[in-house]
Amino acid sequence: MKIVVTRISGLFITIFLVVANAVLIEVILDLFNIKGHRLITGIAGTLLIIIGFTYSMRKRKKFLTMGSPKYWLQAHEWLSIGGTFIIFVHTGTHMTAIVPVITLFFMFIAFVSGLIGRYVYNNAKADLKDKKVQMKKDALEPEEIERRLWALTVASDALSKWRAFHMPVISFLTVMVIYHAISALYYAGF
To answer: How far apart are alpha carbons 91 and 39 in whole angstroms?
Structure first.
């Protein structure tokens, strides 16, 4: 029970820190009347998140077959958290148009969903510890144990249910980001 409470509190602390620090940076930028950061932070945050999506490609072995899926997942998590933070700085406290507000809302939902996915993944991984012990007793090679555990974790029922929610949110967010970028460029006169 202690582990569950720790993980859930870590989830809320992460959400709070990302949002609160983004708002704090936005307040500081407004205080010093710095306005030119919107385009740069929008592009930088989006690029970090796009780079983080390479994990999905690696997981499906479409390309980038090098490295362990475990490290690709960690890179995906950190790049997504960093990209979301930068996007929150990009948005700041300015909620003046409907498309950016909807996009930010889905960004926040995707961010929270990703953190919940990490929680679900960790629980599934903890449930597999006994299987790992058994595989070691069966004298399997460490690489084979890691591969089998990864396959079992990915196939977890809880992760499947989480993915059924997370993937449509990500898909809609992607459409909204593209629409937001096109409309921002159009109305900005680029």
So the answer is: 10
Kindly report, residue by residue over 41-76, the tens digit of the pLDDT: 889 999 999 998 888 777 766 666 777 777 888 888
Q: Give me the amino acid identity at 68.
A: S
Helices (H), 53-156: 54-59, 69-91, 98-127, 129-137, 142-154
On whether the CB atoms of residues 22 and 85 are closer than 8 A, the answer is: yes
Q: Which residue has the higher pLDDT, 3 or 173?
A: 173
Closest to 59 (Cα-Cα) out of 50, 48, 68: 68
Q: Which of 52, 15, 37 is nearest to 86 (CA)?
A: 37
Q: How far apart are CA 136 and CA 128, in angstroms?
A: 13
Residue 6 confidence (pLDDT) above 70: no
Please tell me whether the overall predicted TM-score, pTM, comes out greater than 0.90 for this model. no
Q: Long-range contacts for 57-65 (Cβ within 8 Å, ≥24 apart)?
A: 59/154
Please enumerate in sequence order all residues whose Cβ is within 8 A of that of 27, keeping only pairs 6 or more positions apart, or say none.
Answer: 93
Planar angle of CA 44, 178, 190, nearest 5 degrees: 75
